[in-house]
Specification:
83% of the residues lie in helices and 0% in strands. It contains 6 helices and no strands. Helix 2 packs antiparallel against helix 3 and helix 4 runs antiparallel to helix 5. The longest helix is centred in the first third of the chain and has 18 residues.
Length: 120
Amino acid sequence: PDIGMTLWNLGNAYVKAKNVVKATKLFQECLSVWVKSLHATHPLVIAVLDGLSSILFDQELYAESFQLNRRLHNILKALRPLSEDMATVCHSMGMCCLEIGQLDAAEEAFTESVRIESAL
């Protein structure tokens, strides 16, 4: 995990320096390290997936951001399906779907987000 944390910290430094290409690469390396050394459902893995999906969305890489949000969705569905985090991920998936023109999928994601929020 120490290597992963170093990559995570470097990635955050590059985000602050507005070098998202380098930050993205470091976060992807960090994700790889942590999935292997920790577990795919570890909180640090979840944090990297969330941060990386946000960076990709901001870079208008909506399909890639959606894929990471889908991973997050699957993880959270197993861990805590009725949570603020899950509602947020569903909303993020909906935003990605809107941007890539998948309106039915966007509606489905937003509906799930509202359902979860209503249950909290």
